[in-house]
Amino acid sequence: MSSDTIRRRTVTDATAYVDPARYEDERRAVFAREWTSVGAASRVAAPGTYLSVWVAGFPLVVVNDGGTLRAHQNICRHRSGPLVDDGSGSCGRFVCRYHGWAYALDGTLTSARDFGEEVDPADFSLTSASVATWRGLLFVAGDPTVPDFEEWLGPVARHSANFPMESFEVTHRSSHDLAANWKVYAENYQEGYHIPLVHPGLNRQIDSSRYEVVVNGPATVHRAPTRDGAVTDGAWLWRFPGLALNLYPSGLCLESYWPTGPTSTRVEYTFCFAPGTPADEAEGSVTSSVAILDEDRAICESVQRNLASGLARPGILSPRHEAGVAQVQALVDDALARA
Ligand code: FES
Ligand SMILES: [Fe+2]
After folding, report:
1. Rounded to the nearest whole angstrom, what is the distance from the C-alpha of residue 77 to the centroid of ligand 1?
2. Which of 175, 176, 164 is nearest to 297 (CA)?
3. The model's pTM
4. Per-residue pLDDT tens for 30-52?
5. Beta partners for residue 215, in sequence order
6. Closest ligand (CA of 289)
7. Do 84 and 126 sit in the same domain of this protein?
8. What is the per-residue pLDDT across 282-318, written as a single tens digit (0 to 9) for each?
9. Closest-lying ligand to the alpha carbon of 124?
């Protein structure tokens, strides 16, 4: 993206960060059409295990159907009851929690309680969603016809090829809710310009004046040398709209985020470490990631309050620091235009 294009892209319309109608458009144009990671694939490794999650307002259930992963909307075809409660569990079939219609794990209706022949099961299968796994991570999309997963992943696969992700073990998971529009958080993630002001601790470790965000289509690679001049042995990768993957030879931090409303965002962390990683080392890395998130949360929520005030005016982006912000805004615009 050229410097001029970046400068021209500004926070032109604060309503994009508060408007419920805009949120509805973005749910469908962005999050239903893009893949979102919902953590480690080990969550549904055993036959019959399921994971039920809300992603950008879409209630989805991923289930291991005898070794085949399937994703459905967690919405009964009778009168929209839930098939399973939120969270994980295991079952041999889905029995709706409202009136007891039953479905096979592949989504076929097997029994419409007390209805008899007036219900043709072929007319009332569960609505499919999309599911994929990649190197131990689980991804879903609300739309059953999303882009091919490997193609979608693009440069993220290439940049992570040398890390032994499959050998890492999941040790920590956590969810964090932010009172900010998902784009406020995404744009903040995509620049290192704020590091000296917002993350003093991190700023003592890395040379934030040399923080680089290299844009490559819908993905970016972040880089920053440490203060002592050492080259980091990790890869910090991002893929639109909500995937951030920090990889090291000794482990990984998967960060996944999505909107939970027009002005709220869920951030989910999954930490995995190489077998034998000392517990205090793992704990230390989790604690510092969550502390950085808390610092980002505070600034994002302040920005959100200002955007919601009705007084925020168009700004300007730095070609040196904010190419990643321009990238988020351009990708959202493109998705909305395509829809
Ligand atoms: S809503 Fe599911 S059985 Fe009625
Ligand atoms: Fe930050």
Report:
1. 7
2. 176
3. 0.95
4. 999 999 999 999 999 999 999 99
5. 220
6. 2
7. yes
8. 999 999 999 999 999 999 999 999 999 999 988 999 9
9. 1
Residues 86 and 234 in one domain: no
Q: Which of 101, 119, 124, 125 to mutate to test the pocket of ligand 1 (most atoms within 8 A of CB)?
A: 101
Instruction: Please tell me what DSSP assigns to residue 4.
Output: H
Q: Is the CB–ligand 1 distance for residue 82 below 6 Å?
A: no
Residue 120, token pair as written in the block: 């043709």
> Residue 129 C-alpha to ligand 1 middle, in angstroms?
19
Q: Are residues 272 and 246 part of one domain?
A: yes
Last residue of a domain, one of 146, 175, 197: 146
Collect residues with CB below 5 Å from ion ligand 2. Answer: 296
100 ligand 1 Cβ < 6 A: yes
Please give the distance, rounded to the nearest whole angstrom, from the Cα atom of residue 251 to the centre of ligand 2. Answer: 21
Which range marks the domain in which residue 185 is found?
1-33+155-339
Q: Ligand 1 center to residue 56 CA distance, Å?
A: 23
Distance CA 57, CA 74 (A): 12
Question: Distance between CA atoms of 59 and 122, rounded to whole angstroms?
Answer: 22
Domain end marker among 146, 174, 207: 146
Q: How many domains does the chain have?
A: 2
Site of tokens 């002001």: 197
